[in-house]
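> call design_seq(struct)
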């Protein structure tokens, strides 16, 4: 009876939080195809203006990788009406901050301003879209920036090339097989005309969503949006090739040597379905169950109790077309990656065989509820989520409903997902090791 009361109480608390967090928004299209989403929140005098473009590294030519990430930088160089080097000065001098980021699937730009500067933000983003200056000096400057970023964050960073090593072995046909930062050799070989062509194809209003969130007056905002974005010419329709990967039917074995490390890492990686599927959400539960925090199954067993690993973890890497589920471990002295793999596989086998406990299930629901609340706790997060759900999921209402999908996933579905996707013959086993002279194990 006590368990029943606790379960009912937990459910009521969760549903109450969901209701309290409901995000209201309005969406519409301009004649040029730009999708607009407005979320009004007058609780603080701040407004976020963001544009998400449906272009990421998966849209690149295999021989010209790194372009989407390159444009994340290049489109801050200047426009017809914003002099080179003045973008950040304009933002900061008007009390704002801005940034951008790129994934395999999309590129996202945003400004956070005091609410009295909404018109300025809209003008700047329309300038980026309508009047970008793409010239040789900007391209050469950003090539050097990308080189430095790649050297410091990937090539010379301990364990900095894990994702690269996993992706190139897990994908054969799909453009997910290369990393977002791409190849500096490809960027060096690219000509100015290549960058202009990429911009003309992908940075068009009908391949983007504009989100305004925060403290603003909707009628005025709509007028400014029409004035600044309405005149922009619609681009050609983008036809994307669909890349299909054959199922993995036997273990892929690979080795990657990292000269920046001393402790080898064992990595077990699985190709998973699109983030839009229920199965992807069930795998999110599995990732949290196995390795989210020090109370997770793998950490408690392998790090705390058996002291076989310095670190253990798992991450569900969700993307638009496919995903990756990556489990990794750093062995303690006198143990090997195979020792860790055996322990990891035992826990996965339990997931495939038995239902997780009701207590663990409720813990997962609470964890994901907290994530949902935190993700939508400020207008910056809300703005990005509104853009993401429209552009990548095709349903803005998921900003309110996605958590309900998680709530509806059963313990049986978690077990089924583990059985379906996490089998030894469906994975990559990657030995991520130091150069031989550094490997003392």
């Amino acid at each position: 009876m006590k368990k029943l009361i606790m379960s009912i109480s937990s459910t009521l608390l969760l549903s109450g939080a969901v209701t309290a967090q409901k995000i209201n928004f309005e969406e519409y299209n301009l004649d040029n195809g730009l999708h607009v989403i407005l979320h009004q929140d007058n609780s603080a005098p701040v407004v976020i203006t963001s544009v998400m473009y449906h272009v990421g590294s998966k849209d690149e030519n295999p021989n010209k990788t790194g372009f989407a990430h390159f444009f994340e930088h290049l489109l801050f160089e200047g426009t017809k009406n914003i002099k080179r080097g003045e973008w950040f000065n304009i933002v900061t001098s008007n009390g704002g901050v801005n940034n951008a980021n790129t994934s395999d699937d999309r590129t996202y730009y945003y400004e956070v301003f005091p609410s009295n500067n909404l018109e300025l933000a809209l003008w700047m983003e329309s300038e980026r879209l309508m009047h970008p200056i793409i010239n040789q000096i900007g391209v050469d400057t950003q090539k050097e920036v990308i080189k430095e970023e790649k050297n410091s964050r990937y090539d010379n960073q301990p364990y900095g090339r894990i994702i690269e090593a996993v992706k190139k072995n897990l994908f054969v046909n799909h453009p997910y097989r290369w990393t977002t930062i791409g190849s500096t050799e490809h960027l060096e070989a690219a000509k100015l005309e290549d960058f202009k062509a990429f911009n003309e194809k992908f940075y068009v209003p009908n391949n983007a969503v504009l989100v305004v969130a925060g403290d603003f007056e909707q009628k005025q905002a709509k007028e400014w949006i029409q004035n600044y974005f309405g005149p922009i010419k619609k681009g050609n329709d983008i036809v994307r090739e669909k890349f299909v990967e054959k199922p993995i039917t036997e273990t892929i074995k690979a080795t990657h040597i990292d000269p920046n490390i001393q402790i080898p890492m064992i990595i077990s990686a699985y190709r998973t379905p699109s983030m839009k599927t229920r199965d992807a959400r069930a795998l999110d539960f599995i990732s949290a169950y196995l390795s989210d925090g020090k109370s997770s199954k793998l950490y408690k067993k392998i790090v705390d109790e058996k002291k076989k690993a310095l670190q253990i973890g798992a991450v569900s890497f969700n993307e638009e077309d496919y995903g990756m589920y990556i489990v990794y471990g750093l062995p303690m002295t006198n143990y090997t990656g195979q020792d860790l793999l055996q322990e990891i596989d035992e826990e996965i086998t339990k997931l495939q065989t038995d239902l997780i406990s009701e207590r663990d299930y409720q813990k997962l629901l609470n964890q994901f509820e907290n994530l949902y609340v935190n993700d939508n706790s400020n207008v910056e997060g809300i703005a990005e989520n509104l853009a993401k759900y429209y552009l990548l999921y095709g349903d803005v209402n998921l900003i309110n409903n996605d958590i309900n999908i998680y709530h509806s996933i059963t313990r049986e579905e978690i077990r089924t997902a583990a059985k379906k996707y996490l089998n030894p013959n469906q994975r990559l086993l990657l030995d991520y090791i130091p150069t031989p002279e550094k490997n003392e194990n």
